[in-house]
Amino acid sequence: MKILGHRGMGKGEGENSLLSLIRATQLGADGVETDVWLTKDGSLILTHDEDLKRLFGVDIKIKEVSYKELKKAKLISDEKLTTLEKAYLELPDDVIINVEIKDPDAARFVVPLVKSFDALERTVFSSFIHECLSEVRKADPKAKIGLLIGEDAEGKGLEYIEELIGHYAPFSLHLPVQIFERFGLKIGLELLKGFRNKGIKIALWTLNDPELALKVRTQCDYLITDNLTAMLAVKGGR
């Protein structure tokens, strides 16, 4: 089981900043999960939201500004916004990076950048916007795509997920931890085992409860968490 720091050290202050990503790896995380948007001048910025209201209290949409404008506004720094390029430059070269594509316009740019660092093997590209996965696969058939399942699957049943798997042939299936609330622990684990028996890696997000992590770790390949210290302790206790 690999532990990935959600947005680095977790959701909240400093999330997706370079310092947060680095700190997660320094604590012992196997990798990080981060989110990417494209600026109007083609820079790949790491941030979760389409605008900067929640994080920095400013009414700026990433897609409507340039990197230069963000820098002029003093929003580019190790403690605030950074780029995907900077992350690959500064993080250790053995760290797993789960690049979640928030912006469809960013999809065709992420693979060439990752390849420029010879980091395709340790990168998983995921997105709730599943068409982005086709763009990633088109950019390089060897790219690892993570089928991210969220609200789109509500009420659609397991058949919907099976159809998506058949269409995208993902490297990994990224499931919300709420799967165990919906199906119960025993059935949930059986479902994960079934997917893994088909050769699909399982990533659970966002798993912050160490007791639940202890129960599911045998059927989890990647655990994405805001509670990094506790999850590392769970892993170390095996």
Overall pLDDT level: 96
Task: Please tell me the CATH architecture by its name.
Answer: Alpha-Beta Barrel
Low-confidence stretches: none
Tally the helices.
11
How many independent structural domains? 1
DSSP strand content: 15-25%
Shape: globular
CATH topology call: TIM Barrel
**Element-by-element helix/strand order:** EHEEHHHEHEHEHEHHEHEH
Helix content: 25-40%
Overall structural class, as computed from helix and strand content, comes to: alpha/beta
- From the alpha carbons, calculate the radius of gyration and give it in angstroms: 17 Å
Span of the ends, CA to CA: 10 Å
The name of the CATH superfamily reads Phosphatidylinositol (PI) phosphodiesterase
Biggest sheet record? 8 strands, parallel, barrel
Tell me the strand order in the biggest sheet: 1-2-4-5-6-7-8-9
The level-1 CATH class: Alpha Beta
Overall strand count:
9
Describe this structure in words.
GO terms for molecular function: phosphoric diester hydrolase activity. Pfam families: GDPD. This protein has one domain (2-236): Alpha-Beta Barrel (TIM Barrel). It is built from eleven helices and nine strands. The protein has helices spanning 18-27, 53-56, 67-72, 84-90, 107-116, 131-139, 157-168, 179-183, 185-197, 210-216, 228-236; strands at residues 2-6, 31-38, 44-46, 96-101, 123-127, 144-148, 172-176, 201-205, 222-225. The N and C termini lie close together (10 Å).
Write the layout of secondary structure elements.
Layout: E1 2-6, H1 18-27, E2 31-38, E3 44-46, H2 53-56, H3 67-72, H4 84-90, E4 96-101, H5 107-116, E5 123-127, H6 131-139, E6 144-148, H7 157-168, E7 172-176, H8 179-183, H9 185-197, E8 201-205, H10 210-216, E9 222-225, H11 228-236
Parallel strand pairs: 1-2, 1-9, 2-4, 4-5, 5-6, 6-7, 7-8, 8-9
Antiparallel strand pairs: 2-3
Helix pairs in contact: 5-6
